[in-house]
Amino acid sequence: KIQEGRDFELTARGYGEWFHDCLPEDRQAPMLDVGCGHGAFLRFLELSGYQAIEGIEISEGQAVDARKRLKCPVHVVDAETWLPSHRSYYARIFLNDVLEHIEREEVVPLLGRLATGLATGGTLVISVPQAAGISSIYARYADFTHHFLFTESSLEQVLYMSGFSRVRFLSQRLPWKWTVRHVAYRLMRILYVQLMRLAFTLE
Predict the structure, then answer these.
(1) What are the backbone angles phi and psi of residue 96, rounded to the nearest 5°?
(2) Sign of the alpha-carbon torsion through 39, 41, 43, 45
(3) FRET label pair with 191: which of 33, 38, 148, 202, CA 20 to 30 Å apart?
(4) Distance CA 162, CA 150 (A)
(5) Of the candidates 155, 110, 107, which has an alpha carbon nearest to the alpha carbon of residue 129?
(6) First-residue to last-residue Cα distance in the chain
(7) What's the pLDDT tens digit per position in 55-86?
(8) Which of 148, 167, 147, 170 is nearest to 157 (CA)?
(9) Which residue in 117, 98, 132 sits closest to 164, CA to CA?
(10) What is the reported pTM?
């Protein structure tokens, strides 16, 4: 019910603002969405022309919902069960808004398991709520199942602890539109970012 108010196709297309420079050129590259939920990110990959994509989800209800909207397979299984039979297979593994739901002592083991599913040169792509922000306290407690949030520093730390060798962070790429609403949003966003930088500098 939490997802019912969101436009599925609009949400799916919106992922392009964040995942614009971490996708493979090969549209046949195998990719896995871990904790795919109702499938909006997989739909984004479908719209982007990727063919060898699949999702895993521990909630049967969400998996059933995703299958109604997607062409690609969605499996009801956890990563620990799925990955041993898919070692060194995926060019990309995605973990979108999942890591903050994992209990602290399970984070490093989970990331280590995901690493075993990556092919040589493969990439794990993670999206988590940002802890270093004015709205962080809301993000932390907006969902009862959140255990904690990450900053860039803590996420980098836990990735290196899990055996990953290179970490980089992506910036959002917003399309420019000459509408009053969009220009106002962009200006407010610029102001917000500058205020945040000032606050952290002073702190």
Answers:
(1) -100, 115
(2) negative
(3) 148
(4) 15
(5) 155
(6) 40
(7) 999 999 999 999 999 999 999 999 999 999 99
(8) 167
(9) 117
(10) 0.85
